[in-house]
Write a structure and sequence with these properties.
With about 220 residues, the protein is of the alpha/beta class. It is built from 9 helices and 5 strands. It folds into 2 domains: about 80 residues, Methionine synthase domain (Methyltransferase, Methionine Synthase (B12-binding Domains), Chain A, domain 1, Orthogonal Bundle), CATH 1.10.1240; about 120 residues, Rossmann fold (3-Layer(aba) Sandwich). The chain is globular and about 55 Å long.
Length: about 220
């Protein structure tokens, strides 16, 4: 009898929401043994579960301790699945500088986007969390990056994204870099308002967006 992969991915997502590391590992191992697509399992399972946990956090049903336990379950599943991802490594590698803006130390979403982008064949320079706007610009110049990817989970630090674009404009180098943004409070409307080149709602969409921008 063939396995219903959508049901399996739903269980994987639930294991993250339920903060169940052991279950996340067990289901991830099942994904591997059934020879299902590890990238798809991360996207539709672990990432979807983390998105749901993020919504519960925004609705104040979950708080920071629960969010951290959800991320532990997600990382436990990632440890199993990541070695089985087929890395798309053809041709030139496009470089992306990524980080969480100053004032925010939540890097779960950023880490997931980083993994998905690496898997898609991008060369990632991870600046970590709580990164000043000027650092994004300086490193992007040093690394000769094509894209600057900015993340935040907090409304209070969103302005840092605008500051990065302001610095690029002041230095007359805005055209040299594509700027993409994402995170819980971010929307397409905010991306348009600050003049970002794109916004993605989740890690898989971030990959699609980045590919579109480097091919443009």
């Amino acid at each position: 009898m063939s396995i219903n992969k959508d049901e399996l991915y739903k269980k994987l997502a639930d294991s993250v929401v339920n903060m169940d590391e052991e279950e996340a590992v067990n289901i991830s191992n099942q994904v591997v043994s059934e020879k299902l697509d590890a990238y798809e399992a991360i996207d539709k399972g672990l990432s979807a579960g983390m998105d749901e946990a993020g919504k519960l956090f925004e609705e104040e049903e979950y708080f920071v301790p629960e969010l951290l336990l959800c991320s532990d379950a997600m990382y436990a599943g990632l440890d199993v699945l990541k070695p089985h991802i087929e890395t798309k490594n053809q041709g030139i590698k496009h470089k992306i500088v990524i980080g969480v803006v100053e004032g925010d130390t939540h890097d779960i979403g950023k880490n997931l986007v980083k993994i998905m982008l690496e898997t898609a064949g991008f060369d990632i320079v991870d600046l970590g969390r709580d990164v000043p706007p000027s650092t994004f610009v300086e490193r992007a110049k040093e690394e000769k990056a094509e894209i600057i990817a900015l993340s935040t989970l907090m409304t209070t630090t969103m302005e840092g994204m605008n500051e990065v674009i302001d610095i690029l404009n002041k230095e007359n180098i805005r055209k040299d870099f594509k700027v993409i943004i994402g995170g819980g409070p971010i929307s397409q409307g905010y991306a348009d308002k600050i003049g970002a080149d794109g916004y993605s709602i989740n890690a898989a969409e971030a990959v699609t967006l980045a590919k579109k921008l480097v091919e443009a």
